[in-house]
Amino acid sequence: MTEEAGKPGAGCPIRGVLDRIGDQWSLLTLEALEIDKKRFNELLREIGDISKQMLSKTLRHLDAGRLYQSHRLSGGSAAGGI
User: pLDDT tens track of the chain, all 82 residues?
Assistant: First the structure.
């Protein structure tokens, strides 16, 4: 029996979504990216209380779940969006 099979709601598609975005920072980050692509520092300012390390970790987590995608801009900087 896998660890996932023992969780309440295992096999439910909603469970997979909640596992990806159920934490506070993921929801706030997705909300900030809802309208338009933003640069990392813009996200830091808009979200407010998040540290650079936590925002970076959250963006990597969302990217792994295919809920966010980083884009390279001219000049080598990056912006991301949903």
Answer: 445 566 666 677 777 666 666 677 888 888 888 888 888 899 999 999 999 999 999 988 888 767 667 766 556 555 666 5
pTM: 0.64
Residue 21 near residue 63 (C-beta atoms within 8 A): no
Give Cα separations from 46 to 9, 30, 50, 75, 82 (angstroms): 34, 12, 10, 23, 16
Helix locations, 1-82, DSSP H: 13-21, 24-33, 40-47, 52-64
Identity of the residue numbered 31: E
